[in-house]
Task: inverse folding
């Protein structure tokens, strides 16, 4: 869950969205899904209290547009709710002429696309546009755009049943050979092997599961949200720590 991993960034992001007219922030794409468990995962008390005040979710209706920070939610919304459109937060920010972009002074990074977004060229293009607007130079991973097959170690462990039930196109039909259970040691070894391809010191992703895999691979991973919304405790958008334990899949 994004808020549990990035509590301060989540608050900054919520503040940004709340300043926009006619947008309601909700916690998840599925009403009442694992509310207690997800709330307990937020260790910061002030962030947890802010989280509790948000609506659990909405029953989205045809014609609604969902702005999503989670690729799993994006896929579920579009398959589960006919007529509902999902766009990424990165596309929304890229179109916002009032957004104030931090300047990273020509930082050189590799951009890592997510398997869950392989069909979403507009989102992928928006991410690259945002990097340019933050004065970040990027190179591509070996497999990018629709060819990417990376989503951290989540593809090497079982997925929640609700994913295949609510979004069968993405998580059954198009997931052959994925979500096969591996031990944690095997997952880390796979991530370390994958991460040997990178030629830059810093790797930027836009998925918190991808970030988990990058940290397991022992590289300097950064999530684009942390770069867009740097906070006082984490001004450079650095991920906390060099390696990550797997978090529960959503």
Result:
């Amino acid at each position: 869950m994004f808020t549990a991993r990035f509590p301060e960034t989540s608050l900054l992001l919520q503040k940004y969205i709340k300043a926009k007219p006619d947008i309601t922030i909700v916690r998840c794409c599925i009403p009442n899904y694992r509310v207690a468990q997800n709330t307990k995962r937020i260790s910061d008390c002030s962030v947890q209290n802010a989280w509790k005040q948000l609506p659990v979710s909405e029953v989205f209706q045809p014609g609604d547009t969902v702005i999503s920070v989670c690729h799993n939610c994006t896929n579920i919304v579009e398959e589960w709710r006919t007529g509902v459109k999902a766009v990424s937060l990165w596309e929304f920010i890229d179109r916002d002429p009032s957004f104030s972009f931090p300047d990273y002074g020509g930082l050189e990074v590799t951009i890592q696309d997510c398997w869950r977004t392989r069909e979403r060229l507009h989102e992928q293009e928006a991410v690259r546009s945002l990097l340019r607007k933050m004065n970040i130079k990027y190179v591509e991973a070996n497999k990018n755009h629709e060819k990417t097959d990376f989503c951290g170690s989540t593809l090497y462990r079982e997925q929640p049943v609700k994913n295949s039930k609510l979004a069968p196109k993405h998580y059954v039909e198009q997931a052959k050979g994925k979500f096969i259970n591996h031990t944690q040691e095997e997952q880390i070894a796979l991530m370390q092997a994958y991460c040997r391809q990178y030629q830059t010191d810093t790797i930027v992703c836009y998925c918190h599961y991808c970030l988990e895999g990058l940290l397991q691979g022992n590289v300097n991973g950064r999530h684009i949200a942390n770069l867009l919304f740097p906070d006082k405790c984490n001004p450079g958008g650095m991920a906390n720590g060099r390696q990550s334990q797997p978090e529960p899949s959503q």
About this structure: Strands lie at 65-68, 85-88, 107-111, 136-140, 202-205, 220-223.
